[in-house]
Amino acid sequence: MNLWLYQTTMKTISVTLSKTLDAKLTSAAKEQGTTTSAIVRAALTDYLARNAEPPPGSVAALAKDLIRIASGGPPDLSYNRKHMEGFGRD
């Protein structure tokens, strides 16, 4: 890998770890044959992907203001067939 390219595309940050967490991270890196930095990058990537806002234009983004506004309905509304009896009949 070109060291110059690596240095210009990555940013260095400082993280303070407990001795226990540092030992676990170091051990995991040795077991996996990788670096502690690679594990931290993978963990951050996973965390940020799971906690990201829905993409603009997605159904979740479009309905964001509607989510959780309904209350007081039966807790089994989505799967109990008795709530559909007579639905759609005049």
Characterise the protein shown here.
With 90 residues, the chain is mainly α. It has a domain at 19-53. The protein has helices at residues 3-9, 19-32, 36-50, 59-62. The longest helix is centred in the middle third of the chain and has 15 residues, at 36-50. The mean pLDDT is 82.
**Radius of gyration in whole Å, from Cα?**
24 Å
What percentage of amino acids are in beta strands? Answer: under 5%
**How would you characterize the largest beta sheet?**
none
Helix count, DSSP H or I runs of 4 or more residues: 4
Compute the number of strand runs: 0
Derived structural class: mainly alpha
Indicate the mean pLDDT: 82
H and E order: HHHH
**Uncertain residue ranges:** none
Distance between the termini: 71 Å
Helix content: 40-55%
Form type: elongated
Question: What is the fold's blueprint, element by element?
Answer:
Blueprint: H1 3-9, H2 19-32, H3 36-50, H4 59-62
